[in-house]
Amino acid sequence: MAHATRNMLILCFTFFLLLNLSNNFAFAFTSQDYSNALDKSIRFFEGQRSGKLPANQRLKWRADSGLSDGSGYHVDLVGGYYDAGDNVKFGLPMAFTTTLLAWSVIEFGSSMHSQLNNAKAAIRWSTDYLLKAATASPDTLYVQVGDPNQDHRCWERPEDMDTPRNVYKVSPQNPGSDVAAETAAALAAASIVFKDSDPSYSSTLLRTAQKVFAFADKYRGSYSDSLSSVVCPFYCSYSGYNDELLWGASWLHRASKDSSYLAYIQSNGQTMGANDDDYSFSWDDKRPGTKIILSKDFLEKSTQEFQAYKVHSDNYICSLIPGSPSFQAQYTPGGLLYKGSESNLQYVTSSSFLLLTYAKYLRSNGGAVSCGSSRFPAERLVELGKKQVDYILGDNPAKISYMVGFGQKYPLRVHHRGSSLPSVHAHPGHIGCNDGFQSLNSGSPNPNVLVGAIVGGPDSRDNFEDDRNNYQQSEPATYINAPLVGALAFLSAESTPK
């Protein structure tokens, strides 16, 4: 009897061990998995396109929209991206999205392989628009198309828009250093992307970036003050504009190699947040990203002027690493970085991108992260960044992928007008402003799959509600996806197939 009991215990233990092993490795993503996710993460941007769609458009349920944007103001503002689930073109998040897409290609384009041209197309769709917005009138930057207050009262497809397509701009009289400097950063970063493949376009991007930055710096002020209720509370610049000026100068320094931008950074860094330890990188606050960009110069060239940026980059990274003496981040029980209840995954993707980019810089120069008396190698950063990306892709307590169209289970009721309403191909008739609310409030899955979209994500306890009305959790946005493009490219090259 004792012998039989012992055998039963051994069998039970073996089963338990196998069960745990299968749970642990159920989400051992391969290089092919990350490449598949990369493809989808870029494809998402095609679902956000405004303007005349090209013949090679892959998300076929979308059609042309916003073809007269700007015409009432005698400017051409056709094109660009809708920021999230609505039909407004907000300049600040669009420019940040572009900067992060470009940075992704700059750092990890060599790992994108067949997706590199698609990533460049995603960048160019935005920069073509930003160029028009920056050059339509002297000393003017057009920063928004669409009245968000009116738009948000409707639930309609972009192809059916009949809300006011008001145009908003910043100027010497109504400055917007934050949105202008971010636009300069986007154009400068993109100029690096196209330097070899399209030198003429690259030169145009850089030249325009320099002009827009000069405008941002000369006429200082926040666009939130100039445009008030049409940008707040939607994309209010809570962090002010100093972080964007330093960020913009850093990208122009990297793109142009012009010593005047180095001098600008050295002269203004102290007053623009160089010494601030900030722990959130987003469309609003650029400080951690700026420090990591500038730390590259210190790591590669021992540029002493940038030594402080390495220290502050370390401080940011240390705040994220459990076990670090200066650890201060919050994680869910399932291991997800948690910053806020609304669109939390935007902070997860941006932090993951910075972790993996900084790891790349450290690896190239034999460096490590200093956290007080502790030191962490680049591999620790890769491990943490990978864990966050894997959580998004399905390695989480709910066993759900937060990328639409990836994996066996993913959100079906995404807070997105075009995705949730019948496409114009399936329903050619006009769906009016109020008629779409039936779809918003429906419990049915979205008829059009917004492939690659990353939604806002779960709460602080790993709970997720697949509900179209819960926009905090179910709404996608371009700036959630953009940094993930780079992170997935890195991981597709880092991982080996089973």
TrEMBL record:
It comes from Solanum tuberosum. Pfam families: Glyco_hydro_9. The keyword Transcription does not apply. Its EC number is 3.2.1.4. It catalyses: Endohydrolysis of (1->4)-beta-D-glucosidic linkages in cellulose, lichenin and cereal beta-D-glucans. GO terms for molecular function: cellulase activity. One of its GO terms (biological process) is cellulose catabolic process. InterPro entries: 6-hairpin_glycosidase_sf (IPR008928), 6hp_glycosidase-like_sf (IPR012341), Glyco_hydro_9 (IPR001701), Glyco_hydro_9_Asp/Glu_AS (IPR033126), Glyco_hydro_9_His_AS (IPR018221). Residues 1-28 form the signal peptide. Keywords: Carbohydrate metabolism, Cellulose degradation, Glycosidase, Hydrolase, Polysaccharide degradation, Signal. Residues 34-488 form the Glycoside hydrolase family domain. This is Endoglucanase.
